[in-house]
Amino acid sequence: MKPVIGLAVGRGTGTEVAAVFERVLGALARLHGTEIGVLRSPRTYHSYVSLRAEGGVEAVRRLTEEDAGHYEDFCRTQAALGTRAVFRTAINAQSLYLVRQRLQAVKVDALPLGDGSSSLLLVRDQAQGFYTGENHHLDGVVRRTMEFGRDLTEKVLSYAVERAWRQWPDAGPARVVMAYKFHLLDGVLDSWVTDIAARYDVPVGLFQPDTVNRNLIAHGLGDRTVVVAGNEWADIMHVVLLDRFGSDRQENRCTENVHLHPDVHGLTEYQTVHGSADDLEGLDRVNPVATVRAAAAIAQRYGGCEGAVGEAERALALLAERGVGTPDVGGRHSTTAVVDALLEALDCQQPVWKTPLAMSVRADAS
């Protein structure tokens, strides 16, 4: 039975990004003589800009909750059907964090430290804390309530340690650095972490975000370091870490969001690091590199296309050598032109399988 990948599309440049994803995923499947089905959510989710165009605060509140509820149901349905991966374009952050809270999501990104072999593993706790919660509107006041939980903190930390062993199977993680505003929580988070960390062989340290930043500036981060961080630090610092350690731009990067809730356990969502870029909608100028990398990662990990990541990277390197790129990276090419050139470069690579080539199939959700 062919693997099926979920697809969720937001407004702004979402439609264009989704088209790139389907083209590249299909091309990689053909290169490997296989099929990968795509099951698309029937709802187009709002970006923040499109929400503001719908009317006042009450319209924004209603549509935010509708988008969150629909996307949560879509993820739950995909998990129940056995789908293991979803590609999602950017959607409004408020809707997205409601889903991340309900499905207990962490964002995972492994960043090279510069020598090509060592890396930093960033695990961003998206399931709790200051980005999550509910809004309550009073007279001239918005009150936002959120929470931290001991069981959820343990679940996030346990996943981070387990993922680190997969990242470094021979040696495992050297240490875990946790970056949270724990001074605001009456010492409770500190107490939880001290108790939970005693169960692991790896050293675990809980630090204020500014302390982590000072240490980064003064000493950097050692090999095989896991950073587990709350949203208030990791959201801002992800792009800085990419620049400092990964020598990369957010426009070129994709990441994984892993859901830890038992109802959807095992479902991984892939996204580009860049946002909805509503100002580029319809201009055929959105940078497709992050989407290409997401399609390659999904094809390799879930579509049976062994080596797809390397094939995509070789094609992207060839495009870079030829100066083929969108304006944001100094190029003069449209999105379509970049993807056309990439598919041509992929076609020049030797197919892995000798079986007849098959087209990727898309099935729309009802």
From TrEMBL:
A Pfam family matched in the record: Iso_dh
Domain Isopropylmalate dehydrogenase-like: 4-342
Coiled-coil parts of chain: none
SMART domains from the UniProt entry: Iso_dh
The species this protein was found in: Streptomyces durocortorensis
Top-level lineage group: Bacteria
InterPro entries membership: IsoPropMal-DH-like_dom
Protein name in UniProt: Isocitrate/isopropylmalate family dehydrogenase
